[in-house]
Design goal:
The chain has 438 residues and is an alpha+beta fold. It is 34% helix and 21% strand. The protein has helices at residues 3-12, 36-42, 115-128, 160-180, 205-225, 273-283, 285-292, 346-362, 388-396, 399-405, 408-425, 429-435; strands at 17-23, 29-35, 47-50, 77-82, 88-89, 96-104, 131-144, 184-189, 195-200, 203-204, 229-231, 244-253, 314-316, 323-326, 334-341. The longest helix is centred in the middle third of the chain and has 21 residues, at 160-180.
């Protein structure tokens, strides 16, 4: 899209403000709102802002231990350059459009710690091998009232009646997202009070991550406009179901466009390309845990028989395992990684899962024995990390993922240990209630 086409679209949709967005380390949307005329004048060169925005903590904490930028470097500017192909009017903000930006150094190179850049590099590697990664995200969230309480108190999974209560919000969300080009394939009430799961359209890996970023923005912003509050927090309510992030993935052959997993059947999945990909994904599953569950809270959603995996394993159409294989469906064959929390950075989740699968293919790995029945009862299977601290330790020593993440590997570990330090020094309401009379 050139500036002339961009200007015409701005006139067509009466765009007065352009929201320039990029994901920070946590996958939260950051950026600036720029008046349309100034945006059209500067779109190709981008706009400057402090590079701290890529590496600060969840509440904009600046952390000296991060080597990429800190007080010693002076937190200089980076340049957010709009990816003009991502330009979209924002239906829930009349007069506004959105564009996703690549973060670059003043010299023009993409910033090494940009999570969007990390995913683009993984996609480029897949392309060099002859594949186009395809993914589809499933995310859960809670819809709360202004006081932070669920809109209804019961657990009523797949209920069309409860869904009808939420439909004024859900229909507006679906319609606005589709108008923006983000397609929702299905939605349903989930296993918590006023908890919802939404299934996003299966598409190219980078587009899927961009769509997920926009989806989460839309959920929160439209909820606020309607007097609600939406949260993707992994475990917002004690004794209720946590909110997960499941990722379906496959590879399309760049010559011909066919699903490279299409020939796999339920009987011989292990022996072919899909099996190699599965083996890589399961081998790196323990290290991916920290990326998919990046908070201390996320581990409170993980327990046996919670539908969140606790063991390193895979099975055929089995929701008790870490990777659920769907085979025997031809073009719809795929792998579902079930280990993520809803508040994870989608760019990191997609990059790590795709890269792990490619590693299995390049090394011709064979998967472990498939699990049938209840994986939670299998004491012989390796356990996944059960705390953020142990997950960070596993990620720190996974040389392959360290290579995929590059300089961001150190950034993520520093941010994670900072979160742990805050948690370890916090005095909770539970502690006060239990020990106040000690």
């Amino acid at each position: 899209m050139d500036i002339g086409e961009l200007e015409a679209r701005c006139k067509e949709f009466d765009i007065r403000t352009v929201e320039c967005v990029f994901p920070d380390a946590q996958g939260l949307p950051r950026g600036k709102r720029i008046p349309t005329r100034h945006f059209l004048d500067t779109a190709y060169r981008g706009f400057e802002l402090a590079n701290a925005a890529l590496v600060w903590g969840r509440q904009c904490d600046v952390i000296q231990e991060i080597g990429y930028t800190n007080f010693d470097t002076g937190y200089p500017d980076m340049v957010a350059v709009p990816d003009l192909q991502s330009f979209r009017p924002v239906p829930w903000h009349p007069g506004a459009a959105s564009v996703i930006c690549d973060c670059r150094e003043p010299g023009g190179d993409e910033v090494s710690v940009s999570t969007r850049r990390i995913l683009k590099d993984v996609v480029a590697h897949a392309n060099a091998l002859g594949y186009e990664p395809k993914v589809g995200a499933e995310l859960e969230f809670y819809l709360l009232d202004a006081n932070g309480q669920p809109l209804y108190a019961e657990i009523d999974c797949y209920s069309l009646v409860r869904g009808a209560m939420l439909e004024p919000f859900m229909q507006r969300l679906r319609d606005d997202l589709e108008a923006m080009g983000v397609v929702i394939e299905a939605c349903n009430t989930e296993y918590g009070p006023a908890q919802v799961e939404m299934n996003m359209h299966y598409t190219n890996a980078l587009d899927a991550a961009d769509d997920t970023l926009r989806f989460k923005m839309a959920v929160k912003e439209i909820a606020l406009q309607m007097g609600y509050r939406a949260t993707f927090m992994a475990k917002p309510l004690p004794e209720q179901s946590g909110s997960g992030f499941h990722l379906h993935q496959s590879l399309t052959e760049r010559t011909g466009g066919d699903n490279a997993f299409a020939q796999a059947s339920q009987d011989d999945l292990e022996s072919g390309l899909m099996g190699h990909c599965l083996a890589g994904l399961t081998e790196h599953m323990p290290a991916i845990t920290a990326l998919g569950s990046p908070t201390v809270n996320a581990y409170k959603r993980i327990s046996d028989h919670s539908f969140a995996p606790t063991r390193v394993c895979w099975g055929m159409d089995n929701r008790t395992v870490g990777v659920r294989a769907i085979a025997g469906h031809g073009p719809a064959n795929r792998l579902e990684w079930r280990g993520g929390a809803a508040d994870a950075n989608p760019y990191l989740v997609v990059a790590a899962c795709v890269a792990a699968g490619l590693d299995g293919i390049e090394r011709s790995l064979s998967p472990s024995a498939r699990v049938t029945g209840d994986a939670y009862t299998r004491a012989d299977l390796p356990l996944l990390p059960a705390t953020f601290e142990s997950a960070l330790a596993v990620l720190e020593h996974d040389a392959f993922l360290a290579g995929v993440l590059g300089e961001f590997h150190q950034v993520f570990l520093a941010l994670g240990h900072y979160e742990l330090s805050l948690w370890q020094s916090a005095v909770t309401d539970w502690e006060r209630a239990r020990y106040i009379d000690g």
